[in-house]
Design a protein that fits this description.
- By secondary structure, this protein is mainly beta.
- The protein has 2 domains: 170 residues, Oxidoreductase, molybdopterin-binding domain (Sulfite Oxidase, Chain A, domain 2, Alpha-Beta Complex), CATH 3.90.420.10; 121 residues, Sandwich (Immunoglobulin-like), CATH 2.60.40.
- It has 7 helices and 24 strands.
- The strands form 6 sheets. Strands 5-4-13-8-9 form a 5-stranded mixed sheet.
- The radius of gyration is 23 Å and the shape is globular.
- Bound molecules: the ligand Nc1nc2c(c(=O)[nH]1)N[C@H]1C(S)=C(S)[C@@H](COP(=O)(O)O)O[C@H]1N2 and molybdenum atom.
């Protein structure tokens, strides 16, 4: 069944959720809100209080073992479009959100450079800026699905460590050119000004070509949680490299082998060899509606979700509503941008029988998502970084959704 015929049939049958026309005509159209002028909004707008349930999902803290270790996830299934409101951007802090005095904060560019430089925020705000929309995803996102038994939790708990913003700032290459990169530099070590002193080694060429010193997020200055007053943005690269509260870029010959690239963010394979410096987030797609806790209604609904790839743009998303027997192409809502969340939709009329839904994305480089079993065959048990297996939702005859591996 094609999307068009499905939509036509649905329109003919009438809106499932609309009030009967008679009821609408019986209403008095003049409401109390139309007769009494109301006060204006405040200096900084917030969502209507009836939307108070649309919040980040915080993971319980463990202050005794690891004070400051915190994460919260974007409620992807309660949003639409591709942009994450700043207040709902996921958070991952290894030592909490430091209070940084933007007037005193400095960014130092040093190491193997002709001229070490120190920048204030005010100075950086005078540099030429660029803007781009890009997703940011934690290397551990979706890792819960790597387990043999998939979790029966809301979709944000599994996949909500990804968000998408418009980021504006100074291309890092401008600062590198000003400092003068010496000939045998291969790597840059980026360091944050938090109690984790989060540090990562990144290949020089990648930072030169793609690195953005982000100062603005969705039009306003970065939120403290996202690294105010500045962070490194490496679009499409593992979240951990996107150093927040950035205070140092050191140019070096060899990687520094920091904690975050040795004991963490490496992936042990079945063959006993660990992948290290696996930077780019792989192609992924997730159906967000329906999902666990969001049951299917009989009749029409729109299946919708997000797809993204660190390697480029999303080329297509295919959906199966019959457990993989047939696949149909979902509509990409647009814009479709590289290293960016891409919204997909498919009109569907559910006939009330149990079935299995899956989505699979292909990116502009031809990368595809593996099935869970293919992914699990490659990596050692307990590994979960960079998990991008196909998400399968089992629908029972009551419309309830279960997370399964298929
Ligand atoms: N300085 C610093 N930078 C950091 C972190 C941190 O704890 N400290 N966390 C990293 C990790 S693991 C991720 S996934 C992203 C999260 O960015 P966000 O909190 O803006 O979503 O920031 C990265 N940069
Ligand atoms: Mo992360």
């Amino acid at each position: 069944m094609t999307r068009k015929t499905d939509r036509r049939r649905f329109l003919k049958a009438g809106m499932v959720g609309a009030l009967a026309p008679a009821a609408a005509h019986a209403e008095n159209f003049v409401t109390p809100a139309m007769t009494t002028p109301a006060p204006p909004g405040g200096p900084y707008g917030v969502p209507d209080r009836q939307e108070a349930g649309v919040t980040r999902l915080a993971t319980p803290l463990a202050p005794d073992i690891s004070p400051g270790t915190a994460s919260s996830r974007t409620p992807l299934h309660k949003l639409d479009g591709i942009i994450t409101p700043a207040g709902l951007h996921y958070e991952r802090h290894h030592a909490g959100v430091p209070k940084i005095d933007a007037g005193k904060h400095r960014l130092v560019v040093h190491g193997l450079v002709d001229k070490p430089l120190e920048f204030s925020v005010a100075a950086l705000l005078r540099y030429p800026r660029v803007s781009r929309i890009a997703f940011l995803e934690c290397g551990g996102n979706s890792g819960a699905n790597a387990a043999a038994t998939p979790p029966q939790t809301s979709v944000d708990l599994i996949h909500g460590l990804v968000s998408c913003s418009e980021w504006s700032g100074v291309p890092v290459k401008l600062l590198l050119d000003e400092a003068g990169v010496q000939p045998d530099v291969q790597w840059i070590v980026a360091e944050g000004g938090d109690a984790a002193s989060m540090s990562r080694s990144i290949p020089l060429q990648a930072v030169y070509d793609h690195g953005l010193l982000a100062l603005f997020q969705n039009g306003e200055r970065l939120r403290p949680e996202q690294g105010y007053p500045m962070r490194l943005l490496m679009p499409g690269w593992e979240g951990n490299l996107n150093i927040k509260w950035l205070q140092r870029l050191k140019l070096v010959r060899e990687p520094a082998f920091t904690r975050e690239e040795t004991s963490k963010y490496t992936q042990l394979q079945r063959d006993g060899i660990a992948r290290q410096f696996d930077f780019i987030m792989p192609v992924k797609s997730v159906i967000l509606v329906p999902s666990v806790g969001l049951p299917v209604q009989p009749g029409y609904q729109q299946i919708t979700g997000l797809a993204w790839s660190g390697h480029g743009a999303i080329k297509s998303v295919e959906i199966t509503i019959d457990g993989g027997q047939t696949w149909q192409e979902a509509e990409l809502s647009g814009p479709v941008l590289p290293q960016c969340l891409t919204r997909f939709r498919l009109d569907w009329t559910w006939d009330g029988t149990s079935t299995l839904l899956q989505s699979r994305a292909i990116d502009s480089q031809g990368n595809q998502q593996p099935h869970h079993a293919e992914w699990a065959a490659r990596f050692a048990p307990g590994q979960g970084y960079h998990y991008n297996g196909i998400q399968s939702w089992q629908i029972d005859a009551q419309g309830r959704v279960r997370n399964v591996h298929a």
